[in-house]
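QA checklist item 7 of 12: single-chain prediction sanity check.
[x] sequence parsed
[x] length recorded as 512
[x] structure emitted
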Amino acid sequence: MNYKKLGKILGKIMILEGILMLAPLVVSFIYKESIIQTLAFAIPIAALVLIGFLLQIPKPKREAFYQKEGFALVALVWIVMTLFGAIPFVINGDIPNYIDACFEMMSGFTTTGSSVISDITKVSHSTLFWRSFSHWIGGMGILVFVLIFIPESNEGSSMHLLRAESPGPQVGKIVSKMKVTTRILYLIYLGMTVLEVIILMFDKPIAGYENEKFFFSLLTTFGCAGTGGFGFIPGSMQLFHPFSQYVMSIFLILFGCNFTLYYLLLIGKVKDVLKSEEFRSYFLIIGTAVALVFISLATKMSAVYSTEASFRHSLFQVASLMTTAGYTTTDYDVWPQLAMTALILVMFIGAMAGSTSGGIKVSRIVIASKGTYINVRKLINPRYVPKAKFEGKTLEEKTINEVFAFITLYFFLFLIALLLLSFDPINGQTMTVVSDLHPEGREVTHGFFSNFSAVLTCISNVGPAFEAVGPYASFAEYSGFSKIVLTLTMLLGRLEILPVLILFNPKTWKKI
């Protein structure tokens, strides 16, 4: 293990986090917040920069690091960033409990959007900004940004980091140089972010929040770009006008696409984009899910929603939950069973590989389907020679096995987390949930389905779930132990399991 090299990179990332934390510090000055709010960010900034510089002092004997080190470093970075990123919430009192603060920060960086904050109206502007900004930072991946500054090596150090942090089964360069690849990715990411902010500014301000138009457009876009979904006003996106809700739906779907496809569009290879099997499958799943939800709402809830509102809510919630953003426009927790089932399925699936979204990924679903078909054909005819292709390339048995292994591990860890949550004392208790459809409040029981959906939303990095942890509730009632379990579950989902397992494997740290 190249400890000095890992420490040097970790130090650079800590300095970078300190620099990024200057943004909420500026927000606290703009909104003239108290000295405590200012110190809440100034103190961790100083600590991050100091420790970061100290880690730069030791000189590594070799510059390169290998796959095991790259995977462990990625998981370690996300944990360290969360531990320091949570400090401001404790100092300023917005989230006094450090475990809760770490849950909130991990939820931010992993673009999950699950929250322990019960009353968002009592949270400061600087905290609101830092929570949403963490979505944008974690969306593309902090190490993808750092790769711009890390010298490339013949040993493939940069590729090990990219493979560990980027979601999906296929990771590679889009141009010959890794630095150029990362710059292209971030320029596309930044360009789409700026575009959404500009478009959202054309809408009317929300009643009662007339002076917050730009601030809200910025936070909304951070959540859409990172497919995160932290709410910053009561009801998530419920109070936004239909124009903004449609804009968000479109951009959520766009940010759920593989960013490599945008590069192909920029260089004029439109046919290659349209030929992408994952791209076509992605939009087919979205279209099917929207149709199912719309039919369900139009037939069962016509007295509540107009036809236009039924379509808008269907499009928004499918886009939001499939891209694992987790924004909400209404209380989908009381929708008909068909609609809720469709939403649960898209939460499992997720969006495209190489996007900012979580979930299993469309590419893995397609590959697993083809792998299952191949295995069935082999059982029927042992002489059958597999000819399945994906994205124009013949599917190798190794690729299919890796996908099956990931899905198996995904559900195995899912069940372990669900089992651990079953020990929480909250189970069996009832609570009142107030929403747009039930302003008088409705009783929900914290039971199996609440825990099931809580684990699902954390491992798929979605955000809100159902019942006691639904769109108008929070995770605040869980015990500290359960919050730690769910915090690790979010990290497992964002880094797609292996980096976290490698980090906590004792053999990783043994000298060979």
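[x] summary fact logged: Residues 421 and 482 are 6 Å apart (CA to CA).
[ ] second reviewer sign-off
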